[in-house]
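Students often ask why we bother encoding 3D structure as a string. The short answer is that it lets us treat folding as translation between two languages. Here is a chain of 236 residues written in the first language.
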Amino acid sequence: MRTATYFFIFLNLSLAVFEEPAVYPLPFLVTSLVEVLCLLVFFGRLTHFAKVTLRNVFWKDTKNICIMVAILLSLTDLAIYGVLRIYNVRSVRWSRIVRPIFLINFAESRQIRRAFRSIRNTLPEITYVFLLFMFSLLMFSLMALKLFGERNLQTAEGLPYFKNYLEIVFDLYVLVTTANSPDVMMPAFDFSSWYALFFIAFVIINTYIFMSLFLAVVYNNYKKHLKVMFGGLNCD
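And here it is in the second language, the structure alphabet:
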């Protein structure tokens, strides 16, 4: 039963690769039939669990409620999407976001729930570091707008450079990962090499200091909660 449950959970999650927009698109009828099959298996597994569990225990378990709600939402969304597709009305499969619920809430996924609880308990404690990072990002974006916004600079594609505040925030956010380095700074550097100091300061503060601090806080808090869970607390 455990192997079958994991197989159909994997199959259900894999549908995202084949549903529109997809990497390897398959006809809607094929993906919908596979999804219905997976949901039937999940419902059968839940029914089997209900047969071997006391009724009051079964209905008090939030995991079972979450699975039933996820099945109902998935079937509802699939039916609505199919009807709209018949009338050539474009829509979005919003129920895809509930598919990981099946991975987390089945009884066989105890270890995954432990990791999920550790992550959930860690999030409030890293909020302050995240807010400091966002404050730094917003301040640097504001400085970039003041420094470059009135210089009438252009990107390599001929677009205005650092004219829109929200676009600046996004570009600098990507720069934290160094994915758009050095392209994002080249228009300013071509105008004056002294502007490189702004980007050097930004990378040092946000990439090397804040990201290292963020990683350290996440790691320490996750390790602490994981030790607590394996130290004897109820993990179900």
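Translate back mentally: The two ends are 19 Å apart (CA to CA). Keep this in mind for the problem set.
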